[in-house]
Amino acid sequence: MKEELECEQTIIHEDVIKKVSKKIKDEDELVDLAEFFKIFADSTRIRIINALIHSDMCVCDIAYLLNMTHSAISHQLKILKQAKIVKYEKIGKVVYYSLDDDHIERIFHMGVNHIEERK
Amino acid sequence: MKEELECEQTIIHEDVIKKVSKKIKDEDELVDLAEFFKIFADSTRIRIINALIHSDMCVCDIAYLLNMTHSAISHQLKILKQAKIVKYEKIGKVVYYSLDDDHIERIFHMGVNHIEERK
DNA sequence: TGAATATATGAACAATTATTCATATATTCA
DNA sequence: TGAATATATGAATAATTGTTCATATATTCA
Q1: What Å value separates CA A96 and C1' C18?
Q2: What is the CATH number of domain B28-118?
Q3: pLDDT (tens digit, 9 = 90+) per residue, B51-91?
Q4: Where are the domains of chain A?
Q5: How far is B75 from chain A, CA to nearest CA, in Å?
Q6: Is the CB of A98 less than 7 A from some atom of nucleic acid strand C?
Q7: For residue A50, which residues of chain B lie inside 8 Å, CB to CB?
Q8: What is the pTM of this model?
Q9: A85-114: per-residue pLDDT in tens?
């Protein structure tokens, strides 16, 4: 027989499907949620976030601290900015970045806790 | 002049660097943390997690619910399994997946809250 | 104004990763 | 035992994404 259309008649637990499909969030919202976690899913960005937890910093400071080029840091800061993870203030030539709110720090620490607990 | 070696003498805020470098976590730990968030950073996996919050489910159920192939779901479940996000129990031919602990659900909801608050 | 400095950014390249396809394994049941 | 079913998986492909390189913009200060 031809490959069946993937479970079209083979729902194993129809009751479960019914119950769960009522409760799960819209696909759109879950796509946004994945997008949000994507921000934390890069070690450069996580290191920037970790640094900014402790102090506002300018691009040059961050680049020096992480031993990376200004360009790489600037690109990642752009992503963090667009995602409203960081805010910034320009004073003269220097742009100071800081975490947008303490929600970010809480999510960071929740991840840390999980990592440390499973050791 | 040649492109300077990226801030080697141009530390703008030496005091900040000093303070922050003492407080930030080891790079290794932050790499692990990014790896952990990577698990949540895919919409298929987030949708699986969201489903499993509401009920244990088998591969076929999940595939039907998300309208995806068994293979795609199985591959993602493998990643979730390896990351200890889900656990499973095989009964006969059927493998039932469930969230490994309620930590996972809390991290999921923390993300949801952030998304919803910023609307 | 012009040199120096701090940051930003487009394009190219390299690396990673999700899905598909084909196939394999495991289990049930006639 | 053999057909049917549920799940798993390796390899290939397609898509996404991080960094580098070159260059642009903005600001200060002599």
Answers
A1: 37
A2: 1.10.10.10
A3: 999 999 999 999 999 999 999 999 999 999 999 999 999 99
A4: 28-118
A5: 15
A6: no
A7: 24-25, 30
A8: 0.89
A9: 999 999 999 999 999 988 899 999 999 998
pLDDT in tens, A4-23: 444 444 667 889 999 999 99
CA atoms of B68 and B76, how far apart (whole Å): 11
Cα separation of B33 and A33, whole Å? 17
Distance (Å) from the C-alpha of residue B30 to the closest C-alpha of chain A?
6
Of B20, B42, B47, the CB nearest to A27: B47
- Contact yes or no for B43 and A27 at CB 8 A: yes
Q: Which long-range contacts (CB under 8 A, 24 or more apart) does A112-116 make?
A: A112/B25, A112/B29, A112/B33, A113/B103, A114/B36, A114/B103, A114/B107, A115/B29, A115/B32, A115/B33, A115/B36
**What is the per-residue pLDDT across A38-73, written as a single tens digit (0 to 9) for each?**
999 999 999 999 999 999 999 999 999 999 999 999
Give residue numbers, 77 to 106 of B, with CB < 7 Å from strand C. 79, 90, 92-93
What does the pLDDT read at residue B116?
87
Per the structure, the residues numbered 52 to 71 in protein chain A that have their CB within 7 angstroms of any atom of strand C are 58-60, 70-71
Cα–Cα dist B115/B119, whole Å: 7
